[in-house]
Amino acid sequence: MSTTFRLPEFAGRLASRLPRSVDASVRRLAVASLIGQTLLVVTGGAVRLTSSGLGCPTWPRCTDTSLVNTPEMGIHGFIEFGNRLLTFALAAVAALMLVYLWNLRKERRDLFLLALGLLASIPAQAVIGGITVLTNLNPWVVGLHFLVSMALVVFATLLVNRAFARTGRFRTVPHAALPGVMRPVTAAVALFSAIAVMLGVVVTGAGPHAGDADAPRNGLDWDLFSHIHAVPAYLITAGTLVALALVFLRRITGPVRTAVLGLLGVTVLQAVIGFTQYYNGIPALLVAAHMLGAALLMVAATNAWDIARSSPTK
Hints:
Oligomer: single chain
Shape: flat
Number of strands: 0
Low-confidence stretches: none
Distance between the termini: 70 Å
Structural class: mainly alpha
């Protein structure tokens, strides 16, 4: 006896099995998205720092005749194609997140829109990545590719905070009351972090790690822009120390204290890496660590600001 497949019935059965509250599966997917977006920054850095930017010399195929890398392309083709594959993995995570949130799409519109934004951005990232290849790794296009990745790290951080009810309208995690100045201080740190990342892209575009021996540079003075890039880094440090002083002087506990201490740790780590790479000839390994640190800085700064703005004031 044959049965006829009916899409509405299948969709109804699927929806009945999906969560009607934010459960552990939704939280795990949110964390996977944040880890994946951060990892994408690292693998993108590996592509550039190993001169694998043209490991797949065309787009959307890896070669004119193959969708994937071939053994003849060696390690550079493997690294570049691996970075492309990670994009598909992130798309799968974002799509699965939307499926799990389907029954909550109205009640938890905040989560649904963040997940939708992460999914919608992935094709855009793929196109920008393709343009970088087709323009022979133009440093401005490469920089745009990196900045979009950093924006996605920010969105994924917000997604995690809301999935765990740490921030937003549906917050259930208790927060200590904060002095009113904490919100603008953490907002300033987040803003300066974004500016530092943007200037870091300019510095990178002027530096030696182009992604390929024949890739162009932006023609700017690397040393000058390295010093300009350091200015918002100093302001980040100052803002973080102000936030730290408020936490200890007002004896603030809970998520805000943890967020500020995490921000301090990442800020100090980035400063150490930045100075070390500057005075040691910009070795590729330290540049990679600095790129990872930049992603972690955006996570920490976004987290501190998001928690502060969701906390009561006194």
